[in-house]
Amino acid sequence: MKNARSVIYELLLKMENGAYSNIALDKALSGYELSAEDRRFVSRIFYGVIERRITLDHIISQCGSKPADRLDREVRTVLRMGFYQLLFCDSVPDSAAVNESVKLIKQTKKSGASGYVNALLRGFIRRDKQYELPQDKTEAMSVEYSCRPELVKLLLDSYDEESVVSLLGSSFLPTDVNVRINVLKTDVEGLKASLEADGAECRESNISQLKGSAAEITSNPLGSPEALKAFGDGLFHVQDISSQLCCLASAPKEGDTVIDMCAAPGGKTFTMAEMMKNSGKIYACELHEKRLGLIRSGAERLGIDCIEYICGDAREHNDKLPLADAVLCDVPCSGLGVFRGKPEIKYKDPAEFARLPEIQLAILENASSYVKSGGTLVYSTCTVNPAENDSVAEKFLEKHTDFCGEPFFEDLGAPFGGFKATIFPKDFGSDGFFICKMVRK
Q: What is the DSSP string of 424-440?
């Protein structure tokens, strides 16, 4: 049976081959017999090394005779794990971090590097675990927040430093379990009572727009929210605050016809259906039938039956879709707002995002064709990249003069006040997000 550090080592090697962190971790935790304590240790070190990869490689390069990118990946992976434990795991004694790292490298085909691993880690301890940051501001922030320098520059060129720091720093914070209360089945007190039966606790959101319908699970001895009886009973679904605000901007009402253009995995569809009191009709559109299945199963659990499922390309007109009172267009994007849940995004090359605005605009233009006169069109992303947000919205409005911006949530203050809002973690403790609200004249 593999021990916890061996499992982490194998997971990190898979990440070098392009695996998704959450999928790789879920498979590992279900595939190995690990104690609850070991499962927590695996999750913490695995995500921690991913979150701090640039920082760790910078330290490895400073402490050793070779830059980190010149080392064999097996040696580099073990060193990343060792340095992470030395710097960021107070519960792991320094001696254990060193000794276990040496044991781990001896179990690989690079066992001859055990002396090198031992020397680097012990040398770092003798230096009081100190390292130097680069002089250049962008490079220094890249090392400090472990984010590709090109991405740091993109963010600093677009926003104030406080906002950028809040976004980059969020990748080191625990992911809050914010939930949308299923008002079709319960209320705040009902959810609290159900959670307490499992030894879990929650607190109601203090954001005025979300009072009575949103909460944060603050403690959960079962670990996963899906393990709670309240989840199985359909009393809530997990949803970030920014996504909930996006749904509220769409403002669907009881009896409305609503279209969710890129609906999977279904969170926004569910929230809008609940706002509509499970009446009217909401069309959940998705490119792949398999992903529509995710929405169906979630809707069944929540007791929602006002949804019609449409499979198709969101860029192409679909005759099955009617004119709607509200259309939500939450498009595929670079994800530069969700570092907390997907830390590997910090290492993407911005060149990978170049084609996204073209796709996003095509989806938005097709979505607009379904909006009734006087109806609402909301464009949103989970990125803070202006090229995918403001630029796309502005190009659309220049071309489609039958639409105009509609201010929303002015009572919440910044970042709201106009018809576009770029949300940062510092604003509501949420993911980074963009919302643009428009109406058809």
A: -HHHHS---EEEEEEEE
Hey, what amino acid is at 412?
L
202, β-bridge pairs: 217
| CA 277 – CA 322 distance, rounded (Å) | 20
Question: Could you tell me where the DSSP H helices lie in 303-376?
Answer: 356-368
Task: Please report, in angstroms and rounded to a whole number, the separation of the first and last CA atoms in the chain.
Answer: 65
| Nearest alpha carbon to residue 428 among 188, 170, 180 | 170
Q: Which of 52, 32, 45 is nearest to 104 (CA)?
A: 45
Q: Identify whether the C-beta of residue 239 lies closer than 8 Å to the C-beta of residue 211.
A: no
The structure tokens listed for 235 are 């009393």
- Contact indicator for 170, 340 with CB cutoff of 8 Å: yes
Asked whether the beta carbons of 49 and 56 are under 8 A apart, the reply is yes
- pTM of the entire structure? 0.93
pLDDT, residue 18, reads 74
Task: Kindly list the distances between the CA atom of residue 122 and the CA atoms of 63, 67, 88, 161, 308, in Å, as whole numbers in the listed order.
Answer: 10, 18, 16, 36, 61
263 in Cβ contact with 272 (< 8 Å)? no
**DSSP category for residue 150:** H
Alpha helices in 112-215 (DSSP H): 114-126, 137-145, 149-158, 161-169, 188-197
Q: What are phi and psi of 268, to 5 degrees?
A: -70, -35
Helices (H) and strands (E) in the chain — how many of each?
18, 12
State the amino acid at position 238 in one-letter form: V
Q: Residue 151: left if φ>0, alpha if ψ -120 to 50, beta else—which one?
A: alpha
pLDDT of 329 above 80: yes
CA-closest candidate to residue 46, choices 2, 73, 15? 15
Catalytic machinery residues:
382
Inform me whether the pLDDT recorded for 1 exceeds 70: no
Q: Does residue 372 contact residue 323 with C-beta atoms inside 8 Å?
A: yes
Cα 354 from Cα 266, distance rounded (Å): 27
At 380, which helix (H) or strand (E)?
strand 371-381
Q: What percent of the chain has pLDDT over 90?
A: 88
The per-residue pLDDT of the chain, averaged, comes to 95
Q: What is the 3-state secondary structure (H, E, C) of 272-297?
A: HHHHCCCCCEEEEEECCHHHHHHHHH
Query: By the 8 A CB rule, do 99 and 86 touch?
Result: no
- The candidate with the shortest Cα–Cα distance to 59, out of 168, 161, 132, 167, is 132
Cβ density class 130-142: b for 16+ within 10 Å, e for less: ebeeeeeebeebb
pLDDT tens digit sequence for 183-223: 999 999 999 999 999 999 999 999 999 999 999 999 999 88
